[in-house]
Design brief:
Blueprint: H1 3-11, H2 24-27, E1 33-35, E2 45-49, H3 61-66, E3 71-74, H4 76-83, E4 92-94, H5 98-109, E5 118-123, H6 128-141, E6 146-150, E7 153-156, E8 159-162, H7 171-183, E9 188-192, H8 195-199, E10 210-213, H9 221-224, H10 227-235, E11 246-249, H11 253-261, E12 266-270, E13 278-283, E14 286-290, E15 295-298, H12 305-320, H13 325-334, E16 342-347, E17 350-355, H14 360-377, E18 382-386, H15 397-404, E19 409-412, H16 422-430, E20 438-441, H17 445-455, E21 461-465, E22 472-475, E23 478-481, H18 484-495
Parallel strand pairs: 1-2, 2-3, 3-4, 5-9, 5-10, 6-9, 10-11, 11-12, 12-13, 17-21, 18-19, 18-21, 19-20
Antiparallel strand pairs: 6-7, 7-8, 13-14, 14-15, 16-17, 22-23
Helix pairs in contact: 1-5, 5-7, 6-12, 6-13, 12-13, 14-15, 15-16, 17-18
Length: 505
């Protein structure tokens, strides 16, 4: 597609001040794709040289050109950087807000594939991955071919297509994935939409049929600085430009506020008895979801408040796109999400779980659920192993320690230290640990998990939190292979004398 045509079409959308007059040689350049990373450039691609958190993309112009870039889209800073390089006369499109422009160009180049799909976007501090998986399962039960884009990568009808480093990929990647899924017969996509993705315009060019809000709690304040700013970023998804209607969990104050302030039609959901369009109510050891007219029985694999809430909003979202309530409920009851309250082993009256909980609220919810389970058994302890990621929101670390303090045994260890000193991260967490719990600090995550297994006794619930499905651990000098589920299973195996499988459900 000629660059002049691409920019003309972009200018017909919401992008202001798109360059309309180009040098003829530039205008006639054929562009076949666009990439934000220089190593993602292919022959005929435009290179989106954008400001990053540490370096400007324009610094990588040499690599982009070597790989076959035919034009650059950048800002004034990028223009200056390129002008000082050996590629000062390279064809450039300069815009003061290049990210929205890049997002729309990406959609144009692949023919706006999301317009032919039912699009469901899920946002919130916790629960995005689980809710996406639940909605996907419900749509599959309704014979709707469904793709998923999120933390676990991308899937189509449950088949893994690719892994991904981000909750929400960059705009060109989203559009390319959507194009591929449409070509393979997809009818819907469920996508995790992070607050950072909204702020960085990664989902520009996509209009969601249903937007889902799972709640808000402390996270990403290194990026947003305040909870109000964090909320405002999430609320952006619930505007007419981005979504047609919404499903909002109103169990917390932020959900209530979003429901009040939203300018699109909203279906509210509550699991705590608040006045809502849809209520989830405990009945005879199970749950009933109803809007006062229609209802369905709901079963969850784990009796935890957050699992119940995730299931409720997932069923309602599926209902809004045409899946019958009972069908959606049956599908969500059997859905399993990697690293989300995943039962790794059960032996000698001990349950071993791995979960992705990495915020104070998520840790508190998981520990509370385990505490209730222990109380129901009338014996045992809750043992929790966790750490905090480096280079991410240090403000939340003491609160994570406080949240874990409801457990009987707290083992603080390393998560993904990245460039930070792991001992400093652990110290910040330990500052928040309080109460009468038994406290341990381990400078090896493997040893921490081993300690939890070695000291567990009948009736205990062991929780390994923070990394969930992740298969690596990030350090200052790179990544190492590390999967909590595999490490935990290995220690359970060793504890039982190498007779893995006997007595394990």
């Amino acid at each position: 597609m000629r660059l002049a045509e691409v920019l003309r079409d972009a200018g017909r959308g919401p992008i202001a001040d798109v360059p309309r007059t180009l040098d003829e040689a530039v205008a006639n350049i054929d562009v076949v794709g666009i990439a934000l990373s220089s190593d993602g450039v292919e022959p005929g691609f435009a290179f989106a040289a954008l400001p990053g958190h540490h370096r400007h993309g324009a610094e990588f112009i040499d690599e982009a050109c070597r790989r076959g870039a035919v034009a650059v889209i950048t800002d004034s800073e990028g223009q200056s950087i390129i002008a000082r390089s050996a590629h000062g006369d390279f064809p450039m499109i300069v815009h003061d807000q290049p990210r929205p422009l890049v997002a729309h160009i990406a959609a144009i180049l692949v023919g706006f594939p999301t317009r032919s799909l039912t699009m469901i976007g899920v946002t919130g501090t916790n629960g995005k991955t689980s809710v996406c998986a639940l909605i996907s399962a419900a749509l599959g039960a309704g014979d709707i071919s469904c793709g998923v884009i999120g933390t676990l990568g991308s899937t189509l009808n449950g088949d893994q297509l690719a892994s991904g480093p981000r909750t929400t990929p960059e705009a060109p990647d989203i559009q390319a994935m959507a194009r591929s899924m449409v070509d393979d017969g997809a009818e819907a996509i469920v996508m995790e939409v992070s607050s950072i993705a909204l702020g960085e315009h990664r989902v520009d060019g996509v209009v969601f049929d249903v937007a889902v809000f799972t709640g808000l709690s402390h996270d990403h304040l290194d990026y947003h600085e305040t909870m109000d700013a964090y909320f405002a970023a999430k609320a952006e998804l619930f505007t007419k430009e981005r979504s047609r209607r919404g499903v909002v969990l109103i169990d917390d104050e932020w959900g209530e506020r979003l429901a009040r302030e939203s300018v699109i039609p909203i279906d509210t959901v509550s699991t705590t008895g608040k006045a809502a369009d849809w209520n989830m109510t405990a009945v005879d050891g199970g749950w009933v979801l109803t809007d006062g007219v229609d209802s369905c029985d709901v079963r969850t694999p784990v009796d935890a408040d957050f699992v119940v809430a995730n299931t409720a909003v997932g069923i309602v979202a599926a209902r809004l796109v045409g899946v019958p309530l009972d069908l959606a409920s049956d599908a969500t009851a059997t859905a399993r999400i990697p690293g989300r309250m995943e039962l790794v082993g059960r032996e000698n009256g001990i349950d071993y779980f791995v979960d992705y909980a990495h915020t104070p609220d998520a840790i508190e919810q998981v520990v509370s659920a385990a505490t209730r389970e222990r109380a129901a058994r009338g014996q045992g302890r809750v043992v929790v192993v966790f750490g905090a990621g480096g280079d991410r929101d240090p403000q939340k670390r003491p609160d994570m320690g406080t949240a874990a303090s409801r457990a009987d045994v707290v083992i603080v260890t390393d998560d993904n230290p990245r460039s930070e000193n792991p001992a400093d991260i652990r110290r910040q967490i330990l500052e928040g640990v309080q109460g009468t719990c038994e406290i341990h600090e381990c400078d090896s995550r493997r040893d921490a998990i081993g300690l939890a297994v070695a000291t567990a006794r009948s009736g205990d619930v062991v929780l390994v939190l923070g990394k969930g499905h992740e298969a690596t651990q990030e350090w200052s000098d790179g990544e190492i292979a590390f999967d909590d589920r595999h490490v935990l299973a290995s220690f359970i195996h060793d504890r039982r004398g190498g007779e893995w499988g006997r007595g394990v459900e």
